[in-house]
Amino acid sequence: MSRRGLFLLAAVAGIAFLLWSSFPELNLSPATREVVTVKEEAPRADPGAAGPHGFRQAARKAMPSVVNVYTLKQVPARRGSAPGDPFERFFEAPQGPATSLGSGVIVSGDGYILTNNHVVEGADEIAVAFRTGEAAEARIVGLDPETDLAVLKVDAKGLAPVTFADPKSIEVGDPVLAIGNPFGVGQTVTQGIVSATGRNRLGINTFENFIQTDAAINPGNSGGALVDASGALIGINTAIYSESGGSQGIGFAIPVSIARQVLEQILKTGRVERGWLGIDARDVSPGNGSPGQRIVIAGVLRGGPADSGGIKPGDRLLAMDKEPVADTVELINRIAAVAPGGAVELVVARGGRELALSVRVGKRPPPRRGE
Predict the structure, then answer these.
(1) Does the annotation mark 257 as catalytic?
(2) CATH architecture of the domain with range 5-23+54-269
(3) Of 111, 195, 256, 267, which has the fewest CB atoms closer than 10 Å, so is most exposed?
């Protein structure tokens, strides 16, 4: 018996059709943790390996690994960017009880799927539709709002998992394919190039290291795959810059390096834990600090890890673990990568002297709702 019917949309031969199905009560609590083996990193794709038929082999390899994600939830209005904010999340959610749509990527043959947190956040029911037109109920295994990633699980076997690309193989100018379900029309492949890497300070996520692409991606593509010329996953499509709501050639994907780290942590523990110091760090302009003194500690949380380790407001950060730190973005990312409880050595300038301080990293608090 079901508590409500869920509209399932699936794409077959490029036409979206409606599936009616009865779902049992969904359990959105973390699933039993399992060890899942994902496909090994693919060798570097040859940008010139498209051949006489373009990218058909890459598309043929990757398309079975991409699914459509449908959710049913109560929403007061369309979830998206604030008025005037050009950054758009690619999904549609009309006002009131409604289904919303997105995409996802199969990462294991027994039913684990990567998608965006914003696609499934707050959903009452979730289902995925495969390229074959079949549909299955899905449950949330874990969410990571700070990278906008989520892991789902469906009870299915024999699925086609995506192959992960080597993160070091991604370069500006490489041809890429974006695969997803734009506007609910059905699974669609678009082609472009890597326009830039390492994009941050966009204000989309807490942790940003985006791949920028000009491949056409639109509402419904969220959580879908960005793949290289060999069909290997290089990123999860997550946002676009647009003044019209449609593709304007500036799209952003979460790189496979971050996606895989989040996936592995969620599969292991059901959550993502990051390091934290309890500081307010600010970038200093080159003219206001000597080389290597580009970060100033503006504030220290009383009783926090940095306070306990001897860090003081006004300190200029010079290095972490004997490596220079370029700016606050790099500092946050490097601290976050340290397991809570681990120690780091911070070198700071204070009163004309350099001090080496050992600081035990704490656990990063969960983001507050609305941040």
Answers:
(1) no
(2) Beta Barrel (2.40)
(3) 195
Q: Is 181 helix (H, G, I), strand (E, B) or coil?
A: coil
CA 93 to chain centre: 20
Predicted confidence (pLDDT) at residue 94 exceeds the cutoff of 70: no
Residues 6+ apart with CB under 8 A from 258: 147, 149, 207, 209
Q: In whole angstroms, what is the distance from residue 114 CA to residue 223 CA? A: 7
pLDDT digits (tens, 9 = 90+) for 157-167: 889 999 999 99
Q: Which CATH number fits domain 275-363: 3.30.450.70, 3.20.20.70, 2.30.42.10, 3.40.50.300?
A: 2.30.42.10
3-state secondary structure of 297: strand
Q: Which of 103, 108, 118, 144 is catalytic?
A: 118
Verify whether residue 53 is a known catalytic residue: no
Domain edges within the chain? 5-23+54-269, 275-363
Catalytic residue among 65, 103, 222, 242: 222
Closest by CA to 154, choosing from 171, 172, 129, is 129
Burial class (CB in 10 A: 0-12, 13-18, 19+), 248: middle
Q: Is 310 exposed, middle or buried (0-12, 13-18, 19+ CB in 10 A)?
A: middle
pLDDT tens figures, 227-256: 999 999 999 999 888 766 666 788 999 999
3-class DSSP assignment, residue 241: strand
Out of 148, 174, 214, 315, which one is annotated catalytic?
A: 148
- This prediction has a pTM of 0.73
Residue 57, classed as helix, strand or coil, is: helix
**Looking at residue 17, what is its pLDDT?**
35
Q: Which residue has the tokens 């991409």?
A: 66
- Catalytic residue flag (residue 118): yes
Distance, C-alpha 257 to centroid of its chain: 10
Rounded Cα distance between 209 and 227, Å, is: 17
